[in-house]
Every structure is written in structure tokens, then in C-alpha cells.
Design brief:
With about 900 residues, the chain is α+β, with helices and mostly antiparallel strands. It folds into four domains: about 5-180, Beta Polymerase, domain 2 (2-Layer Sandwich); about 195-340, Nucleotidyltransferases  domain 2 (Four Helix Bundle (Hemerythrin (Met), subunit A), Up-down Bundle); about 450-625, Hypothetical protein af1432; about 655-900, no CATH class. Helices cover about 55% and strands about 10% of the residues. It contains 38 helices and 17 strands. The strands form four sheets. Strands 13, 14, 15, 16 and 17 form a five-stranded antiparallel sheet that branches. Strand 2, helix 5 and strand 3 (about 140-145) form a beta-alpha-beta unit. Helix 6 packs parallel to helix 8 (about 175-180). The chain is globular. The two termini are about 50 Å apart. About 40% of the residues are buried.
């Protein structure tokens, strides 16, 4: 190793780092300790300056300068030949370093024969080991110039990194030689480079759902992230031959406004990324829930009508949306300048305002939008009518952005503009693509200010995984997809229904407005219905059309609520829902809207179980509407019909009819109203045969459900002598087994017995299927728990998943007595968590409350469960204090679990 006295001072000196003291410490102490102490001290100093609000660019560049200094001393502790250099590549090559950024280094030699083994191997190994020992997380390679050229010729990432390399130590001429042999005139022409980088962006965006609005966005790689700025820089530098972004000014690549957006956006994302690294203590690029609140607080956001974290994320989404917009126009400009250069196809006139140029639409002259403001919408109508268009020319995108201020109240009131906007919904073959373009170019939010208000608006929960505007456009996209033949298998009813709609544009408009009232306080469905009505009236829709759209917006949650919270096997429920809907046409529109809304809210919540609930509700309601609402099905008639079908099917089972009748007479009417005759058959047979052999021992059957209502779930049937804490014991067992309960049916009508049916999925939301090992374990755990019914139920505690801990929504409960059913109805709405039902079961046990029935609904990560309960004597709860205490303890127990884990 070289002595410190032999190493020159690092130049230029760093104001914030005292080199003289550092050099003296290296002389007097263990170098590894000195390096570590220096790095730790500067990290603390930079972090403090960040929290004090210092300019982010200064901090990022200072960190890079400091690392240059550290590497200067580390490098010069070893002996190196003259034809070797240490280069920074990648982001570090741009002199940009965040707290835990990648530190990519290249040890470059001029001679091919000087491989790593030959090239002063001891110095290489000693240098790299020293960097690891002092805590630097580096990526390094040791290559000759020719090796770099060979690899860069076939690897676009390596070629990109080498474009931005800079010499830290050693022979400076090697970098110039390397870049001369890896330029656009040698490898990766500007056209090839552009095509490869654009494809990289497409693939990168696909990994992030092609949206800026993921709940936990990736600051670096998601659409509108830092990579979108860098890709513009890389391609432009490759094409124009400039060394840095500032030198590209005046090349026509960007306007001064776009340049300002890029710089401001980059600074904003740098601040977020710096905060992420600092708080996470690692190279974290995902804006996880774990950090969003802390960063919002660090950035000074406060709770107002919305949470501070929602305000922060709204700001963040606006930033990335603007960056995505600039990325779009600049890549289009580069496409024209690089890939379309020399294309001499003559422009084709479309009308007096637009022409086709190489399958892109272009304004005929720069004054088009100023002279004819309606062209700001017309251009999207033309694009929607002709799918062969690839997009909009860069110059025209800029004209749109420059003239969008023309959209004001007078513009919105102009019948020409109104009809153009409606024609987009009636005639467009690529409606969603055009709406996305209109949003990206700022037109949609200006033409519909109510849509502009929800652009970038998030909801801080795990149920809604997109912002309101992104979700809205996805709803319309699902509506459009339903008509595609390939979607018929996944959405069989929606695919048929959407083809019957007389005016599908009314469905799309309802989708556009269904969530537009969010974020204002109050019922967003009612607020949105008012907005939708005003839109329809302003755009000259008929009274009938207006009523339908407004009704769909107001009732867009009705069908999912009924299907998942009410007993849709009850004819009265079907009748009431049918009365609310009114006719088959409205049912078709509402069904399609609901299915699209559920899938676009969170695709994880749409499974075969929920699909079957929706299908059953749709079919039964359609049947009721066709039969006529005055001709309702009598309950007793339905019970008699079900029993007759079951008895016919049981005829060949060699069961005595009198035993069947005796069993059925002991069961309540709910059993025959809710269960299908096929389930009644096998359950009846199983009970009679079990009693003959095993007497009153518990009967447990695990099978894939035959019920269309719960298709895609495993059915667990339990019949046992009635006891107070059966539900608590079963819930505890399911918690141990990590089974998720989709629905629970409890029948206590049979004398001395209770029949419970649970529909479950495993921890991966899959059915148990034919897994005999799992089935045996489930049965064993259930029998163990049920054998201990007289003892205290031991409730299993599993940790709450990470994401669920970062939502402020407390548990909500409501309670009322249902005169018709004779039960007390308890509703619990809460973030889901392990052991949810076992906790509630334990509370029921404490209060001597009997569970008569339950409606279990899990929506993504949110639970909305309804419990039908009575006191020990089977009567509704009549003591107001008892009802309040019951709710209080449920809320406290559920919320305490998460709060304790967070602490």
C-alpha cells in the first residue's frame, strides 16, 4: 500500500469535508475505521441538510463529489500501471448519488492481455476488498477497451452506461478512446438505440400496469418516473451528440416550458427518492405505505379535508403525470427526427384542419386550434374513428398544450363541442385510448372540470388500488372489453348483456361519472348523480337517457352490495332488488357497470365466488322482472318445490321417507330457502347415515361446492350438538389453518343440533381441491377445537400483513333489530387481518350472544361482514347498553391488534 503522504490532495477541495484531518486520521489510525467514520459523518450531515430543506441538486452532487474523494484515496493506496483508469458509470457517471444509489465502477485497461488476473491482481483485489470493508455497496467490472466494445455492441444497457462514464482516477485518455469506439457511428446507431430504449420503456411500463397511479409506485421505474426523464436524455444525447441535458437546449427537442417541467419534476422525484432512501435505510425505490406517511410529514403536508398522506400522494401523482406527458411528446419528436427522417410520403389531407403524415395526425398549420377551438376535441374524434392512426405528431401535441387554455365555460357550452364530445362515445373504435390521450394532454380535465378534480386523487386504502381517474378509465375499458369474443369465457353474462344494450354510450358515460363525486365529502354516488344529470342536460340528452345515466351513477354500488351482503336466495330480497331496478334494460346496464367497476377497482376481488353471486342475483332478478313484479314467488311455494326436488333425487338412496321428513321438519325454513336441492340431498343422506353409525358425534364433510352461488370455493359442512361457542371454535380453527371464510350459514333449527356451512379458500385464495392431506388436517384441527367446546377457546394470533398496518381507517360497526327476521343485525366494516372472525367469535362468547347467521364479505383487504345474532334465549338484543358495549369491545379488540403490532 502507498502511504498517505504519497497521495495528492483531492481536487477541488470539498467545503463540507475536512481533507487535512481525514488524511491525518488515515496516518494515525486503522484506515477502514477512518473511511467508515468519514462516510457515516458525511451521510449524517447530508441527511440533516436535506431535512432542513437544502437544494436537492446540491445534496445529490455533493454526495457524488464526496464519494469521488473517498475513491481517490482508496485508489491511490494501491499501485497501478499507467494504462489503467477507474471510471464511474451509470448514474454515478452522471455524478448523481442518493443515499443508497448504485455505485457502479469500471476498472478499464488499454491492453487486451491485461485481464483481471494479470492486471496487478493484488491491487484490484485489495482495492475492491477495501471498498466492501468500508461499507460501500459497489458494482464493478474489470475490462479492456475491446472487451467493453464487444459487450456494449450486443447489450444496450452496457452501451447506455458507457455513454455516461467519467474518469475518476488513472489515465483520462482511456475514457475518450472508449467513448470514441462506442459512439453512434460505431455501434448502436441513433435509430437502433432509440428503438431499443423505447422498447425498454414499453416493457418497464408494462411491469407497472402502464399507469402512474399504482398505490405503491416505483419512483424510478414506473410511468412518469425518473427513468422516463433519463430515456429522453439518453436518446437525445445519442442523436444530437451532446454530453449533457442542458446542451440540448435549442435543438428543438423541448420547449422552455417542457424543459422547466423536466427540471422541476426531476427535482421533485429526487426529493422523494432521497427521503425514501434515508427513511428506509436502503436502496428503496418503491413508495411503500410504510414510508408514505413519514415522507408526507417530512414534506410538511397536513390533514385537512383529506389526509396528509393523500395530499402528498396527490402532489406526487400530478408530478409523474406531467412528466409522462412530456416524455410522450419528446419521444414522439425523436421518433419523427430519427426513425421517420427521410420519409418522403406526401401528407394526406383529412379536412381543413388536419392531415395524415406517416399515419400520424398533424395540424395543417400552427393556428388551427386558435382559429377553430373545437378542433381540440375533433382531433380525438378523428383518431377514434380510424384505428390505423399511430398517434399525434409532436408539433401538434405541443399546439394542443399551448391552446388548451381556450377551454372555458363558453367552450363547454358550445353545442358543436358538446356533440363532438358525445360522438367520441358513440362512434370511437378506440374510446379508452382517446380518453387517455385527452387526459394526458390536459383536455379531459379542462372540458370536464369535475373529472379534473379527481385526477390523481387516491384513496388511502388497499381496496382501491388506482386513483379515481385511472380507475374510471379502466372501468370503461372493461366495458369495451366485454364485447370482445375472447372475454366470453371469463365474463359470460357480461359478454352477452353488453351486446343487447341499445345505447352502449350511455353505459360509458355512466362509467365516466360513477366515481366523480369522490373527495368532496358526502355520498359520492349522490354527488356524482347530480353531476351526471347536469352533464346530460348540458349535452342535450333526452329525459329518459338522463334518468338512466343519473340512476346508474347513484345506484352503481347497489348490485354488489345486495349480492354480497344480503341473502339472495330469499325471494323477498330478489323482489325488493327487482323493484329498485324496475326493468330488464336497467338491470343489464347496472350489471355491466357493476362487473366493470369491481374488476377495475381491484382485480383480486373478482373471483369465481363473487362472479357466481352476481350471476345468481342477475338471473333471479331477470326472472322476477319477466314474471312480473306483481307475481312474486311465495316462500312456502319455493320451500315445497325445493323439498319435492330433493325428495325425488333421494328416492334411489334407500333412505326411509319418514326419516327424511322427520329430519326436515326439525329444520327451519331458512335452510330450504337458502340451500339448493342438490346440497340438501347429500347433506340429508350424510346426516341420516351418520346418525345410524355415530349417533350424536360431530359430522364434518369437506368438499368442493356444488352450489353455483359459491362456485370456486371449498365447502365445509359441520353438524354438531348445539353449544354456545361453536362459531368461535370453528373460527379459531380456520385461523390456525389460514383459511379465509367467504360465507357462513348457520342453521339452529334442528332440535338439539346446529348445522353450519362455511365456504372457504386457502391462504392463497385457492380451493382445497383434491388435496387429501389438507382435508385430513382441516378435519383434525376442527375436531380438536370442537372437542374442547366446554373449555375456553384459545384464539390464534397471526401477524397482520405489512400493508394493512398503514391505513388509518378504524373499525366501524352498526347494529339494529330486523323485525322481519327477528334477529339483531350487526355490521362490521374493517381492514382485514388474521384471526378477524375468531376475535369476533370470542366477543360473542363473552357476551353470551348466539350467532344465527352471517354474511361474510372480503373486498380486497377490507372486510364488510354482517352478523345475525340473538341473546341466549334466541331473542333480538333489546338492551341498548349491551348493544353499545358489544360494538365498543369489537372495535377495540380489532383495532388494538394492529395498533399493538405497529407499536
Amino acid at each position: 500500500m502507498n502511504s498517505i503522504d504519497e497521495i495528492p490532495f483531492y481536487q477541488p477541495p470539498l467545503i463540507f469535508f475536512e481533507q487535512g484531518r481525514f488524511r491525518q486520521d488515515l496516518t494515525d489510525n486503522n484506515p477502514i475505521v477512518v473511511f467508515k467514520d468519514a462516510i457515516t459523518a458525511v451521510n449524517h450531515q447530508l441527511d440533516h441538510r436535506f431535512t432542513e430543506g437544502e437544494d436537492i441538486r446540491k445534496l445529490v452532487y455533493d454526495r457524488s463529489d464526496f464519494l469521488d474523494c473517498i475513491l481517490h484515496y482508496a485508489w491511490n493506496m494501491f499501485s497501478w500501471p499507467q494504462n489503467v483508469a477507474l471510471l464511474a458509470v451509470g448514474g454515478y457517471g452522471r455524478a448523481e448519488l442518493h443515499p443508497y444509489s448504485d455505485i457502479d465502477l469500471l476498472i478499464l485497461s488499454a491492453e487486451d492481455e491485461l485481464s483481471e488476473a494479470q492486471l496487478h491482481a493484488d491491487s484490484v483485489q485489495g482495492f475492491i476488498t477495501l471498498l466492501w470493508d468500508i461499507g460501500l455497496d459497489i458494482g464493478h467490472s474489470v475490462r479492456s477497451i475491446n472487451q467493453c466494445i464487444d459487450i456494449a455492441s450486443s447489450d444496450i444497457s452496457v452501451a447506455t452506461n458507457l455513454m455516461e462514464c467519467r474518469t475518476l482516477e488513472g489515465a483520462a485518455n482511456l475514457q475518450l478512446l472508449l467513448q470514441a469506439h462506442t459512439g453512434a457511428d460505431k455501434i448502436w446507431t441513433a435509430a437502433d438505440f432509440f428503438s431499443a430504449k423505447r422498447q425498454e420503456q414499453v416493457e418497464r411500463h408494462n411491469k407497472h400496469n402502464n399507469t402512474e397511479y399504482n398505490l405503491e409506485p416505483n419512483v424510478k421505474n414506473a410511468p412518469g418516473g425518473l427513468r422516463d426523464i433519463q430515456i429522453i436524455s439518453w436518446v437525445a444525447k445519442r442523436f444530437f451528440g451532446e454530453k449533457n441535458f442542458k446542451d440540448l437546449a435549442g435543438k428543438g427537442l423541448f420547449t422552455s416550458e417542457e424543459y422547466d417541467i423536466l427540471l422541476a419534476g426531476e427535482e421533485a422525484l429526487w426529493k422523494v427518492r432521497y427521503a425514501l432512501h434515508m427513511i428506509a435505510g436502503r436502496a428503496e425505490e418503491r413508495l411503500l405505505f410504510d414510508y408514505q406517511r413519514d415522507i408526507a410529514k417530512l414534506f410538511g403536508y397536513k390533514d385537512d379535508q383529506r389526509l396528509a398522506v393523500e395530499n402528498f400522494m396527490h402532489w406526487y401523482y400530478r408530478i409523474v403525470l406531467s412528466l409522462h406527458e412530456v416524455n410522450d411528446v419528446m419521444l414522439q419528436y425523436l421518433d419523427e427526427a430519427i426513425l421517420q427522417a427521410g420519409n418522403n410520403q406526401a401528407p394526406q389531407k383529412i379536412n381543413e384542419r388536419f392531415r395524415r403524415v406517416d399515419n400520424y395526425i398533424e395540424a395543417n398549420h400552427s393556428g388551427v386550434f386558435e382559429q377553430t377551438p373545437s378542433a381540440l376535441i375533433e382531433i380525438f374524434v378523428i383518431l377514434g374513428q380510424d384505428p390505423s392512426f399511430k398517434g399525434v405528431r409532436a408539433s401538434t401535441i405541443r399546439l394542443i398544450r399551448e391552446n388548451r387554455h381556450l377551454i372555458d365555460d363558453d367552450y363547454r357550452s358550445d353545442p358543436i363541442n358538446q356533440q363532438l364530445f358525445l360522438s367520441l362515445f358513440r362512434e370511437s373504435k378506440s374510446l379508452v385510448s382517446q380518453l387517455k390521450r385527452m387526459k394526458r394532454y390536459g383536455i379531459l380535465g379542462l372540458y370536464l372540470p369535475e373529472f379534473g378534480r379527481v385526477t390523481g386523487q387516491m384513496q388511502h386504502d388497499l381496496f382501491h388500488i388506482y386513483t379515481v381517474d385511472a380507475h374510471t378509465l379502466l372501468v370503461i375499458q372493461y366495458m369495451r372489453r366485454f364485447s370482445h369474443p375472447e372475454m366470453a369465457e371469463q365474463f359470460p353474462i357480461a359478454s352477452q348483456v353488453v351486446k343487447r344494450l341499445a345505447q352502449p354510450e350511455l353505459l360509458y358515460l355512466a362509467g365516466l361519472y360513477h366515481d366523480i363525486g369522490k373527495g368532496r365529502g358526502g355520498d359520492h354516488s349522490e354527488l356524482g348523480a347530480v353531476d351526471a344529470q347536469l352533464f346530460c342536460q348540458r349535452h342535450g340528452l333526452s329525459k329518459r337517457q338522463t334518468r338512466l345515466i343519473s340512476w346508474l351513477v347513484e345506484k352503481h354500488l347497489l348490485m354488489s352490495t345486495v349480492s354480497q351482503k344480503q341473502d339472495i336466495s330469499d325471494p323477498e330480497v330478489i323482489y325488493n332488488f327487482a323493484m329498485e331496478v324496475g326493468d330488464e334494460a336497467r338491470l343489464d346496464y347496472l350489471y355491466t357497470l357493476t362487473v366493470a367497476d369491481m374488476n377495475a377497482t381491484n382485480p383480486d376481488i373478482w373471483n369465481s365466488w363473487r362472479a357466481s353471486l352476481m350471476r345468481q342475483l342477475y338471473i333471479e332478478t331477470r326472472r322476477a322482472l319477466r314474471r312480473g313484479l306483481e307475481n312474486t314467488v311465495d316462500k312456502q311455494e319455493l320451500i315445497d318445490e325445493t323439498q319435492q326436488q330433493a325428495m325425488t333425487k333421494l328416492a334411489d338412496k334407500q333412505l326411509k321417507p319418514e326419516l327424511i321428513v322427520e329430519l326436515w321438519q326439525s329444520l327451519g325454513e331458512d335452510y330450504f330457502l337458502r340451500e339448493s336441492y342438490t346440497d340438501i340431498c347429500w347433506q340429508t343422506e350424510a346426516i341420516i347415515k351418520h346418525d345410524r353409525i355415530h349417533g350424536d358425534k360431530p359430522l364434518i364433510i369437506i368438499a368442493e361446492t356444488t352450489s353455483h352461488s359459491f362456485e370456486g370455493a371449498t365447502e365445509i359442512f359441520i353438524r354438531i350438538k348445539d353449544r354456545p361457542n361453536i362459531f368461535a371454535a370453528v373460527a379459531s380453527a380456520f385461523c390456525q389453518l389460514q383459511l379465509n371464510i367467504l360465507d357462513a350459514r348457520i342453521y339452529s333449527g334442528e332440535t338439539g343440533f346446529t348445522i353450519d356451512t362455511f365456504y372457504v379458500l386457502d391462504e392463497n385464495n385457492q380451493t382445497i381441491g383434491d388435496d387429501s392431506v389438507k382435508k385430513r388436517r382441516i378435519e383434525a384441527v376442527l375436531r380438536t377445537e370442537l372437542a374442547l367446546l366446554d373449555d375456553d377457546v384459545e384464539f390464534v394470533k397471526r401477524r397482520t400483513p405489512r400493508q394493512l398496518k398503514y391505513f388509518a381507517m378504524p373499525t366501524r360497526t352498526s347494529i339494529n333489530n330486523d323485525i322481519v327476521s327477528g334477529y339483531t343485525v350487526l355490521e362490521v366494516i374493517s381492514p382485514d387481518r388474521p384471526g378477524f372472525l375468531s376475535i369476533i367469535g370470542g366477543v360473542f362468547l363473552e357476551f353470551d350472544v348466539q350467532l344465527q347467521n352471517a354474511k361474510i364479505t372480503t373486498l380486497g383487504e377490507r372486510v364488510e361482514d354482517v352478523f345475525f345474532i340473538t341473546d341466549a334465549g334466541g331473542k333480538p338484543l333489546s338492551d341498548p347498553k349491551l348493544c353499545q358495549d358489544l360494538q365498543d369491545i369489537i372495535r377495540r379488540r380489532l383495532d388494538q391488534q394492529v395498533n399493538t403490532e405497529k407499536a
